């Protein structure tokens, strides 16, 4: 329920409204697994004192005005409504096991079977369980027998960097329970003094601006022409009517960071994100080739949409500064996407 007081409603960003549309309703699912049993009371106590429940987005309801526009409205957070506890063990089909099957399963079930059960639970959540607008748009599902927690956060609450900053600020290092995790070192911008700003420097600035304008016009024209005149070929990954209700399956793949670094060093001007993108592209290609032999012929066209934040972001945001409302620390939600 909304807090009493004089809090003004905060309108959603255009990207936030897009994430709430039925065709693009996006909920982020994050699975955390541990070695030790989960203490439910300790989890709730930690959440009550965490930065997350004090952040305006995580303690605000989604409301609509008389014109149908969405706003964030400050509300009291009831942790018990956001923490969903599952005490029974699940099988690979996301069914609860009875007591006799439960004990035999605990003795003979391996990590792979346990992981498959959790994956199927999350896959079913993504289809059958939308987040309720009667409370802030996040939940934590704790699967006690599987020693696992599933975070469900609506993408309208923030972009990837903002949400990762929140997660990192809520964690502590294993070797020091009072210390925050080490963040990615921020790269400070280097500016030349007045002596270095000669005609060549000015020419470089103008040339860069002209290239930006030319490429922008070119890409906009290409997008318009492609949207009007070119259609993608139907493939096994193409959507359709009611795609948001289609059954889903979640699988887990593990990649060693050291292996990805080896690939990164072998290719000039490459980042870890580039390597990961190549892995995803290769997996998609193999899946298409497996499901539709000879589908990867020359000229096959597939169009995807990815929202990108154009604001400069050097790394993880300092949540302590963000919570104080510092001008340079801004909570992002892909406003410029």
Provide the fold topology.
Layout: E1 10-11, H1 14-20, E2 27-33, H2 40-48, E3 60-64, E4 70-74, H3 79-82, E5 83-86, H4 99-108, H5 111-128, E6 138-143, E7 148-154, H6 160-169, H7 199-229, H8 257-266, H9 272-291, H10 319-323
Parallel strand pairs: 5-6
Antiparallel strand pairs: 1-4, 2-7, 3-4, 6-7
Helix pairs in contact: 8-9
What does this protein structure show overall?
It catalyses: an acyl-CoA + a 1,2-diacyl-sn-glycerol = a triacyl-sn-glycerol + CoA. One of its GO terms (molecular function) is diacylglycerol O-acyltransferase activity. Keywords: Acyltransferase, Membrane, Transferase, Transmembrane, Transmembrane helix. Its EC number is 2.3.1.20. InterPro entries: CAT-like_dom_sf, O-acyltransferase_WSD1-like, O-acyltransferase_WSD1_N. The structure is a single chain. The chain has about 325 residues and is an alpha+beta fold. The protein has 3 domains: about 10-90 and about 110-180, Chloramphenicol acetyltransferase-like domain (Chloramphenicol Acetyltransferase); about 200-230; about 250-310, no CATH class. Helix content is about 35%, strand content about 10%. It is built from 10 helices and 7 strands. It has helices at about 15-20, 40-50, 80, 100-110, 110-130, 160-170, 200-230, 255-265, 270-290, 320-325, and strands at about 10, 25-35, 60-65, 70-75, 85, 140-145, 150-155. The strands form 2 sheets. A 4-stranded mixed beta sheet has the order 2-7-6-5. A hairpin with a 5-residue loop joins strand 3 (about 60-65) and strand 4 (about 70-75). Helix 8 packs across helix 9 (about 270-290). The chain starts with 9 loop residues before the first strand and ends in a 14-residue tail after the last helix. The relative contact order is 0.13. The model is unreliable at about 1-5 (pLDDT under 50).
């Amino acid at each position: 329920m909304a807090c009493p007081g004089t809090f003004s409603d905060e309108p959603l960003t255009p990207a936030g409204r897009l994430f709430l549309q039925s065709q693009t309703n996006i909920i982020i699912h994050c699975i955390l697994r541990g070695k030790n049993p989960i203490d439910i009371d300790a989890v709730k106590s930690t959440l009550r004192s965490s930065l997350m429940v004090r952040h305006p987005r995580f303690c605000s309801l989604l409301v609509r005005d008389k014109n149908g526009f969405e706003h964030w409205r400050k509300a009291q957070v009831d942790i018990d409504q956001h923490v969903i506890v599952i005490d029974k063990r699940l099988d690979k089909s996301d069914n609860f096991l009875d007591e006799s099957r439960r004990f035999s399963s605990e003795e003979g079930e391996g990590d792979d079977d346990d992981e498959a059960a959790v994956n199927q639970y999350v896959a079913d959540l993504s289809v059958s369980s939308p987040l309720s607008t009667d409370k802030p748009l996040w939940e934590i599902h704790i699967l006690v027998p599987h020693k696992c927690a599933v975070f469900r956060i609506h993408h309208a609450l923030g972009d990837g960097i903002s949400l990762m900053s929140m997660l990192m600020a809520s964690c502590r290092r294993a070797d020091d329970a009072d210390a925050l995790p080490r963040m990615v070192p921020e790269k400070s911008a280097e500016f030349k003094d007045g002596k270095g700003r000669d005609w060549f420097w000015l020419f470089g600035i103008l040339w860069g601006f002209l290239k930006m304008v030319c490429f922008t016009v070119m890409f906009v024209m290409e997008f318009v022409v492609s949207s009007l005149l070119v259609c993608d070929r139907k493939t096994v990954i193409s959507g359709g009517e009611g795609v948001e209700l289609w059954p889903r399956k979640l699988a887990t793949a593990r990649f060693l960071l050291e292996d990805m670094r080896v690939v990164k060093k072998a290719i000039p001007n490459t980042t870890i994100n580039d390597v990961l993108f190549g892995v995803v592209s290769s997996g998609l290609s193999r899946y298409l080739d497996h499901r539709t032999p000879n589908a990867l012929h020359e000229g096959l066209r597939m169009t995807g949409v990815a929202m990108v934040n154009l604001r400069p972001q050097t790394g993880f945001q300092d949540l302590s500064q963000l919570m104080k409302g510092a001008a340079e620390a801004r909570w992002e939600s892909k406003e410029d996407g």
